[in-house]
Amino acid sequence: MADLAVGGRCKCNGHASRCVYDKLGKMVCDCKHNTAGSDCEKCKPYFADRPWGRATSEDAHQCM
């Protein structure tokens, strides 16, 4: 699985298995693999030794 879309409103680039509502009521990804952003589109601070990449079924492409 490369992407997860929930109701067409939440695209997580393969870095989340579910979406949650943020404080403003917007659907955002529940990011894993040390990723961040509403779509898990970047690495968390201090986890940029490996550049961000979309997760695939073969490689979670975890930020390190």
Automatic annotation (TrEMBL):
GO cellular component terms, A-Z: basement membrane
InterPro entries for this protein: Laminin/Netrin_ECM, LE_dom, LMN_ATRN_NET-like_EGF
Domain Laminin EGF-like: residue ranges: 29-63
Keyword line: Disulfide bond, Glycoprotein, Laminin EGF-like domain, Repeat, Signal
The keyword rRNA processing belongs to this UniProt entry's keyword annotation: no
Pfam name, any one: EGF_LMN_ATRN
Keyword Cell inner membrane: no
CDD domains reported in the protein's UniProt record: EGF_Lam
Alphabetical GO biological process terms: animal organ morphogenesis; dendrite development; motor neuron axon guidance; tissue development
Record protein name field: Laminin EGF-like domain-containing protein
Native source organism of the sequence: Romanomermis culicivorax (Nematode worm)
